[in-house]
Amino acid sequence: MGLLPDIDQTRSKLGSMVRPLSYAMQKGIGHRTLTHSWVILLLPALLFGDTFLAKAALFGLLSHLISDAMVGRIQFLWPIRQGWVGIKLTKRLYRQMDRLVFYMAVAYLLYWGYNGGAERLVQSL
Fold it and tell me: Residue 100, Cα to own-chain centre: how many angstroms?
């Protein structure tokens, strides 16, 4: 799910797999608009309900949107035209922030697994 927001760009991994749809979205609504907005964050709950999978998908989508907002702007409040948000970090600072977020996620997963998260996940399946 983390790659889904870039379906509106033909050069992305996902966009290249569904090129006709991607091209239509890119020309019709543009990049970093609908698929980078609050609307896309509803998708995991609609598809998976209140499950671990929905939460994992939401995390993937959120991390994508935050990452894109760190290197440019996204239209998070789409369809409001003034709804563009974001900061433009330098590549160096972005890489440092990206590493920090990655290490924090790994630390959280280790903590979660150590405290029985993996067992609860298996039991819920």
Answer: 17
CB 67 within 8 A of CB 98: yes
Cα–Cα nearest to 30, from 6, 66, 14: 6
Question: Which tokens belong to 79?
Answer: 């369809």
The pTM assigned to this predicted structure is: 0.73
CA gap 29, 70 in Å, rounded: 21
Sign of the dihedral defined by the CA atoms of residues 105, 110, 116, 118, in that order? positive
Give residue 42's pLDDT: 94
Q: How far is the first Cα of the chain from the last one, in angstroms, to the nearest whole number? A: 20
Q: Please give the backbone phi and psi of residue 84, each rounded to the nearest 5 degrees, phi first.
A: -80, 135
Which range of 12-16, 26-30, 39-43 scores highest in mean pLDDT? It is 39-43
